[in-house]
Amino acid sequence: MGARKAAVVTGSTSGIGLGIAQALARAGMDVTLNGFGDAAAIEKIRSDLAAETGVEVRYDGANLMKAEDAMGLVTRAEAAFGQVDVLVNNAGIQHVSPIEDFPLEKWDQIIALNLSSSFWTIRAAFAGMKARKWGRIVNIASAHGLVASPFKGAYVAAKHGVLGLTKTVALEGAKDGVRCNAICPGYVLTPLVEGQIPDTMKARGMTREQVINDVLLAAQPTKEFVKVEDIAALTVFLTSEAANQFNGAAISLDGGWTVQ
Ligand code: NAD
Questions:
Q1: DSSP single-letter state for residue 259
Q2: Is 155 noted as a catalytic residue in this protein?
Q3: What domains appear along the chain, each with residue ranges and CATH number?
Q4: How many Å lie between the centroid of ligand 1 and the Cα of residue 131?
Q5: Annotated catalytic residue: which of 59, 81, 119, 155?
Q6: Half-sphere exposure (CA, 13 Å, Cβ side) for 234?
């Protein structure tokens, strides 16, 4: 078993996942990156982070829409680092459509990636964590795990499901030192959200500023985007000993959106 803790962060070639992987490496953990993107750009992210922090950083291109790939991500990380102590389920996609037009394959893809992949990775990592009497699982859910918005049926259903999975895993791991919690961010200006802006501008005949203020941040009382760094810092905290009694929690990080 390695002296350092080892983490797997799904969907960590971009956005929130990348910020979390960087923060965990800076906190002294070996990290497995995962996600899609340009091979040279991913290798630069990997080697820069390893050079900056001195920990081991590896990349695994598993496609988490497939059960075998998702479970393989964990078993390969265990083989490389000796164990997986921290698992962050972050990979996710979005599709916006009214229910009656919602493409059937988009529904299946979103349920697979945004919900089932967390089950698959947890299933693969759980026995090892319980046997070692220590594990931290952090699921990146969403404010949409707690409340709905129109036209995001698959995403909202998947994120509500993630909170149910989080609670169940929390109970199953409680006596064996494994903790499972979910973070529920409001809007963060990542490529996932950037991608929704042009379509919404067209659909509603709005400027970029109007989409940001009147649509995206409409429900967010602070009128500020949540920062990737905020989510990364909370994730690092949830992996710490001080967070030992956080278990099964859905922690809102949304500027007050879901208390209204
Ligand atoms: P992003 O699009 O910037 O990053 C998504 C990551 O997932 C990328 O690394 C991508 O390569 C990877 N990915 C996509 N499909 C994959 C697949 N099949 N297998 C493996 N990896 C895959 O998105 P983001 O905004 O950083 O979102 C990350 C998570 O945070 C998602 O679960 C999202 O639902 C959640 N979230 C985002 C926001 C927001 O406002 N951006 C708010 C709340 C929750």
A1: G
A2: yes
A3: 6-186+226-252 (3.40.50.720), 188-225 (no CATH)
A4: 30
A5: 155
A6: 23
